[in-house]
Fold each of these.
Amino acid sequence: MKTKIFPLNKIAFACSLLLANPLAWAEDQFDASLWGGGSVLGIDFARFNVKNAVLPGRYEAQIYVNNEEKGESDIIFADNPATGRAELCFTPKLQEILDLMDEAIVKSPNAEDDTCVFASEAIPQGSFEYQSGEMKLKLELPQALTIRRPRGYIAPSRWQTGTNAAFANYDINYYRSGNPEVKSESLYVGLRNGVNFGNWALRHSGSFSRFENQSSSGFTDKGKNHYERGDTYLQRDFALLRGNVTVGDFFSTARIGENFGMRGLRIASDDRMLAPSQRGFAPVVRGVANTNAKVSIKQNGYTIYQITVPAGPFVINDLYASGYSGDLTVEIQESDGKVRSFIVPFSNLAPLMRVGHLRYQLAGGRYRIDSRTFDERVLQGVLQYGLTNHLTLNSSLLYTRHYRAGLFGFGLNTPIGAFSADATWSHAEFPLKNVSKNGYSLHGSYSINFNESGTNITLAAYRYSSRDFYTLSDTIGLNRTFRQFSGAYLPEIYRPKNQFQVSLSQSLGNWGNLYLSGQTYNYWEKRGTNTQYQVAYSNSFHILNYSVNLSQSIDKETGKRDNSIYLSLSLPLGDNHSADSSYSRSGNEINQRLGVNGSFGERHQWSYGINASRNNQGYRSYDANLAHNNSIGSYRASYSRDSLKNRSTSLGASGAVVAHKHGITLSQPVGESFAIIHAKDAAGAKVESGANVSLDYFGNAVMPYTSPYEINYIGINPSDAEANVEFEATERQIIPRANSISLVDFRTGKNTMVLFNLTLPNGEPVPMASTAQDSKGAFVGDVVQGGVLFANKLTQPKGELIVKWGERESEQCRFQYQVDLDNAQIQSHDIQCKTAE
């Protein structure tokens, strides 16, 4: 934990160090003669003749048990009449964090009673030490009295619900293109909104889109404004279930079996509730744009992402996790209007689980697809169990009125790699055709990683060995077709028959990296087999980075064969700038590109790119893009034109608006869980580990991502705040629940220096080395020579202060004060400090 220390008068600073020192060992004696003799001044120095001398009050501390960090908490020291010194109080919060066996605790605190139960009495076999300089509380205890927990374990009672708040995530992309013959423009607004109240989280996702095309002849095609609804659900977690309950419109998230949209109820486990050491994904999308292009990504028929990218390779690695499976369709619309698409497979293999661990999901409701809800009622159950260290059992059941399916499989860990296999049986009914079909599907996979050689091999085989195997979506889709077109016949859709995939990645050390992949697949009701191969190699020569990518796709039904090659070079041009070029050939078309890109700004908040490209048919294009990231969002713009007189312009913005108890804050896009940071009067202070995040005028900021069920450290760098603002601490801990919105309040105060010239009723100055506290017991300042109180910890403009130089009533006094905390200048007041009558 860090604190911001401000310069004080040398005498006062030395005095404060003396009083705060916790390591006054028992065999040492405090030399009161340094202060002219305690008896002369009327000061009781006895408290400093013992180890761990601490003044009474409330402190923040990191808690350690046998050198293992347990967490952060406020701790309280109170005077113990039996020992004549301040001792640690054993509070319910401290008991919760220490997580000790019952045998270790002799006397437990009462949550409804403020009476201090001293830690030395509650845990007589323990040894406590508070290090105020490092703000640490350490407990040494026989290991037999501690509860053995997995590394990183956090008790569910410490998970934090967060605050009531609302947010709206937005992703806006405006795209305009045209030439002398036709012009078009489109607008896409992706939304992900939420409201948190108590333990419940309400979430909604959707997208708004519109387009307009206009030809030179005057014909205009205006598309309808369209809003597409995604998920809308209410969710909360339950520690007892080690999972969560979801009600509303959602996608099932089974790691095995089929996933689909549903309106209903789901109860599912959440592995993130486990300790990090006990825990076992959206994929990364890569592609190449030939010009300044619009990239759209769809899953289950729903657009989940859209962005404009410059010419050249692009990587999209910030997709929201919308489910555990469901292939992604990536569409690339070039500036000349050409559209290309490809599929990114997304079907996680069921992983191995630790022995005794259980993963489950039970969901029931009505089937949903493309924002429509059907009358077909669905019940799904999924169960995975770690039977041994080497064997995991997987099972799944799916039931509707016209469809049933069951899956059984296993994952096997062996010295020669990991195996996974499962078999699915299905029964599909088509009542309008008086037909039912029984089928099965077999699936197997194998993977191995050779750490010594840097080789990773993944082999996955899917074989639909039965012509009569149908999925739930197949069955519902066909029954829907039969209701609309009575003359339709049964085998009208392409259904997978055989699919085989293999990939290999190899690290070659100084010789670079090699990647090989291949897949082949075919369908029932369709002749021929589709085959794809890819070979990629990357390396560097001094500061020059280069890569080569070769691919081939073969469609035996049409006889079409597509061979392509892609070469790229990248050369750094100093800090954060580089030049890159590429050469690609696909069929008879050759494309060449040259570009410069980089970032600039104090925190690299600006990025840019300039590109020029041409092909062997005389086509040329030029584009430029600029982006900016700051505390309140991300903004981007691009422009392109080509030799065919096509032009395109795009503008984009993404961010969030968060409403909370301290106001409304603009933010970068927020994730599933995030934190609101508030520090009064600290505008401009930077948030540590938050990319380009600073406190706004109102002292608020948003940390866009936090990790649920883990300790998250939220830090503040106060260097850009006003000089007279003091932070009580510049780092805090939170342990958020999933979907929670944490509120992290940093206690601050204006570093207003107030000098109180204190005299007692008899006219004598208040004794030097006395300490002052406010009415809540918080430390305010120390008294130096001449009875001068240096008060630089005042949090209220008026109130009462208590000054102590001993523990007896006759060794303390109190007075009322009123000051201007907004005045950065030193203020001085002459005050009589009243003693007890």
Amino acid sequence: MRVQGEGVEEVRFAELQVTCRENAGWWLDASWNEQFAVALLGLSDRVNVQLLGNGVLAASVYPQFGMEGQRVVLAAAPTSQFLDVVQEVERDFGLPSPRIGGEWAKKSRAVRTGYLFTDLTESNADETIRFAKLGGFGYIMTYDSTWAKSLGSYPINTSNFPGGEVGLRATVDKSHAAGLKVGLHFLTSFVGKNDPLVRPRPDPRLLKDDEATLAADIDEKAIEIVAAGSLASFPTEGAFYGDTKAGFDLQIDDELIQYRAIGGPGNNTFVKCTRGFAGTRAAPHRAGAKVHHLVERYGCYLADLRTTLKGEISDRIAGVINRCGFDMVYFDGGECNMANGPFWYWVGQQQDDVCRRVTRELLAQGSGGTAWTWHWFSRGCCDDFAAIAPKQYLDYHKIADSWMHYTRSFMPAELGWWGFLADEPDHPATMPDEVEYYGARMLALDTPVSLETNLAALKRNGRTEEMLKLLGTYEQLRLSGAVPKTVREKLRTGEWHLLRQGDKPAFTPVRYDAQRVNVPGELRVTNTFAAQPLKFRLQAAPALAPVGDKTNVVLLRCEPARELNVPAANAPMPGALANRTDFATPLDLIHHRALAIRLRVNTPAVAENEPPAVLNVQLESGGKTYRDHYLDLDFTGERTIVLPEPTTERMLPEFRPAHANYAFKAAMYGFNYRHVVALNLRWMRAPKDRPVTCSVVLVEALAESEVPLKNPEVTVGEKTLTIPLELKTGDYAEFWADGALQVFDRKGTLLSSLDVGSDLPGLSPGMNRVTLHAAGAAWAKFTAITLGDALLLP
């Protein structure tokens, strides 16, 4: 194709509408249904292929990337044969078409196995290999911060590999000898602030996204820097989660400077500046010097991909892969390279450059994909892990969003990253029921999983070996093909428990219904299945100070009560902000995680099936991370409600927040209770026609104390199960009515096994009253475990 003339911005040289548009493959830009699939395939990375919706496929070229000679192929075939046709196009037109083990990568056996994503080092290789094999993984992938000392120039981290690159190669060889392949993780085009490309002299090829000019000379001590013009386009927020222009780091000549705010007449002054930032040297600068704003994402700078730095990074990554024998690469953070320009082009440039330099078979994955990198990539990963509410995160995000995105684009997928966690103040330790939840979905979707963790977390969780063996059993079942499609389809929803019926595996529906209770106290347990022995998990919970106690931390007190404005009709929902309280000094709530909220509510009568308004009492920590606590406003009058823990498990099923309000993943990641910066009150749901009136009186963070649960008794009807020991806060007893009652500490370490006899409480179908007693008052979390009829394999 040849275009002549001035002023051309875009040439759309192909556009068609197809009728097979039930499914949109946005990564490959394919439109398809069960019978037929159609896609436009650009024959270079300079062709912007787009799926415009409603079955419209288009291809465009642009002067800045080169237009002459660009071509596109129309690929159309019965859906079952579509990938074969795409493979033919790759072969016939010289497109990237990686192979693994003699097979096209996307159809290879390699993409059917998962990986353990962990801190593999020279010294821990033997332990890591053992854990990987226990979980049935085919690969181990090591973190960028484990194998490299810093991002950008990627020097080998000799703390983890004392032998340098030789030691890294020896570790890969050891894994190969054990029958495992090894992956290398890195952040695509990122440059760490501790990297030689930054300190002591910043490389001029770092990416910049704004520019100003010094209005006057400054010396090396100036902490206010005046520009010759407005700085309105410079960011005023730190670079945390997301891909928007943010961050406070400047470059003037060979010095990096960090500002904290913008002020002065006409907003022309950087104030509260830190000079000689990130290991550079503070120096005088002359009037007229350029002031560059450095692009920052996730605490790092980015390479300017228009410069030779792209090639240097590619040489380094590909060289390590080639010399050390890596079998896999993960291009993390690739989407951030849209800071260079249009997503469709720039997000794939570093990946393409690396892959072209690799001389060995390579399974490629990464975040951020373009129509061009679709050819290079072998498989897609279903996003980062959630520290809390992992089950809902799997179903409503990983599968509903990511897995569907990949499979609709004819890309194999894996259900990682899944966090395998030790107990921390902001999240509990990973439990076996989470493993079974993932295991059931792995079988249902015939999709592997990747597990993100580190060796310390694996060793601190006392149930690691039990859970990895369980995961390995599910993986063996999946790879064996022993579970028929009719059974797998049932495993797509609900919770399941794996057991054995004779010599065959079977799956039984399971429910875990958790409730907080003051001991002594009574709770109601609903058994939706047949009559069965009582099964449960009983955990000693922290005791909470009463509302108004002097040991509590007042987060908000309103005298008079403060009415919360309901969201405007055009406000983004859910999650519209009703009130924000910024704390002058960040609060340490590590021992005050429970919240008490006093509200005055007037709720009009609502239709029988209309859900109530929901208020989110949200803690915010540094870095824009959150913990959500939801309140149903289904009452009228003044009421004080205690929320012992976040209720994030409701978010994705009921009210995923609008991205304009906050990122839902930021409410599911880790959270620093020692650095709480704000309290947000948000509307998650508001009745459309019957607005609720809600005023806040008080929000307190309740003091926690450790009170043991001594000799607890669980009674149903006339029968009682006694646990003759003391449960410290966080300890839990678990009983499946098929053997001994086991007692674990909060880390999952087995403390004891008890024979509790055979004359035990049982649950009838329907509602059951369960009472808890102990020697003294205490708090507890009781989880009733109920099982349905087993689903047998034929």
Amino acid sequence: MKHAYFLPLSLSPLSRQLVMAGMLTTALVSTDLIINISHADNVTQQQRFNIQAGSLESALNQFAVQSGITVSFSPDVVAGIQAGRFQGSATPSTLITQLLADTGLQATLLANGSYSISKKSAPVAVTPKQKQSVELDDMLITSTRSDTQLKDSPQVVTVINREQIEQQMEMSSDTSQILSNLLPSFSPSRQKLTSGGETFRGRSPLFLIDGIPQSNPLRDGQRDGHTIDMSMVERVEVIHGASAIHGLGATGGIINFITRRPSQDTLKQSMNVQMTTPTGEFGDETSGYRTDYNLSGSKNDFEYTLGLSYERQGVFLDADGTEIGVDNVQGDIMNSKSYDLFTKLGYWIDDDQHIEASLNRYQVKGGNDYVSVDGDIEKGEPTTSVRGTPVGEAPYNRVLTTSMKYQNYDLAGMEFTAQAYRQEFEALFGALGSSSFYDPILAPDRIDQTETESVKKGAKFTLVKDGLFDDKLKVTTGLDLLRDNTSQNLALTGRRYAPEIIHKNYAPFLQLQFKPIDKVVLNAGVRYENTEINVDTYKTVFAKGGGVTVQGGNPDYSETLFNGGIVVSPLSWMSVFANYSEGFGMPDVGRVLRSVEVSNASVESLLDLKPILTTNREVGLRFNWESVNLEVSYYESDSDLGSTLSANADKTDYTIDREKQEINGAQANLGWKVNDDHKLNLGYSYIRGRHDTDGDGKVDSDLNGQNIPPNRLIASWQAEWTPKLSSFVQASYNFDRNFDEEAGDDEEQFKAYGLIDATMAYKLSTGKIHAGVTNLLNKDYFSYSSQTSYGSDTRNFKGRGRTLTIGYSLDF
């Protein structure tokens, strides 16, 4: 197949929806994207710095990240100016003055503690309303392993900052909902504990916490989106498209949750309490509440952060005031309780060496107080809930993530980072009756519940050398190690459902960034993945061929993965980028091994264990004017041996189909900063996926809603009416879709729906009160997953009706 790097005009659905998006664009555009680094209350406090020699722009970025003080400037103002290297202790005010010495520039300290850089001959006018921000184009993206500036990235990268996280949490604490609200290429949230059917650009994203993998590819229970409370997160770095920089799993992209970091102050504390209720009914069963607390600070060479959160969620109601069906099997966040304990400790050994230890303990567990009542898809009747006690223990996620990190900013002129981590993951699923569980002695009634356990231990080593060839070349190299032990049991009968699988992986990598001239950035890299899977001889459960013995084995696979990209900036406000990258993933090995029904099978002979190699090609444009920014891109994502889930007749279990897949899409983000008080945002995503169903090597059918999200449009308006009163409104529209439209197959037709959410906040003399409303217009709709991939009488779920959240937060 030939791949064209332009948007095909033959895609009539895309043309129709781009016209609609264009019409909405004339009415709604977005703000300059900015990141809130942190509050900077004291610019005279001694701190340690390690500023590498190079451009002044790079030096100011390093200063902002290391000091926690935000710096705003125009790239034109600092263009062509060099800065020397600085290592040691200094106050931020002294260091920034030194960096600007003899440059003709000045740093203006704003009332909020941030700096604005301008020419001395024409200082900029500033007001107390200015945000503490560094322009997003100038931010360093740590998830690339080499601290790449956003403007130099040949891939689409989105950074969700702390302000956006807090804004979203005033309406919903659901991680999937937050991501869906801010990323048009992410599927609409299922509003459940499971993330099954929630994809990113039509493929699986790799979830990370501070670079630590949270996904469980060996037995993918699709719960990896719920391993941390968002109140513990400082920002989220999202790399769009396949990537191998963090190893296997990122066939759709990387979603890295960067946790809260210690304050430079002696002590800072924050707390938040809020209550949630449907607007149509207020009561103990339908109401929910949450509270979170954060403490951080530093003293001499020590740094510390502590976070606590607790949440109880009530029963969800649809727009008609009816209890939404509870998913007693895959798990639910309604009628649940969750908590998170997070701590991070740091210590400066000397001016260049830093060690850090972190721990995050998270659990979410259902209340087991409701049972679902089947709906009727043909009659349009939803699945609902009534009071009752389901069989077995309530579904839960229980996750412990620990890490130890060492950084040396001057190891023979290089920056060295070593990280060791461990993650313990337990996921219990609810009991159900399934033919897969049948055993004439242990389970004659076919009822059981599965439990997945995974322990991951790994290490990451990264070495960065910058400033080579007259500051034109940066070299990043490293080695990743991983050992993953995963198994799946049947909890009620004590049987082993999927055998213990030991996955060993090592992967050295090399990444280069070369700037031959100021307007061109070249990126290239290679990563060698070496994977071995160890499985002892095991016996399947009785339902699989009466219990067959499968010969164990140690299959191993290796792949050399490449990436390359270019960014060309012919004008200061415009850049063109192109990228090629490869991602490496594994199919659901546990699902394959537990499903063997034939005799004399062996692990090494199972073709389905071959890895998924995904190639991603992308081209795009970035425009960044004074108050308007725009990014558009077109991408293609292909895999010759993809992994597609297909449901059985009653949709209680799924099998894996290994087949060729081709996905293409386009996305756009447009912004407009109307003034200091009003900012608008618009994002659009188009996607189409096809797969080969007859094995002839040619794609012939649409990928279903289990794999492909709808085409989506999201928009938002942020306003500051007074220094104390602010508001935020967001809207999303999921366009209708008819899978296999060419064949006239209407079985999986998706009916479009749109939602509007809003929040308002008012600053008091002490603290802030806020109120948020989701589904403001009380839209009655069936969720995307219910209409497409997971739709059945038992899972014909509606979405939540209008819901109100009221809260109070305080920084002290």
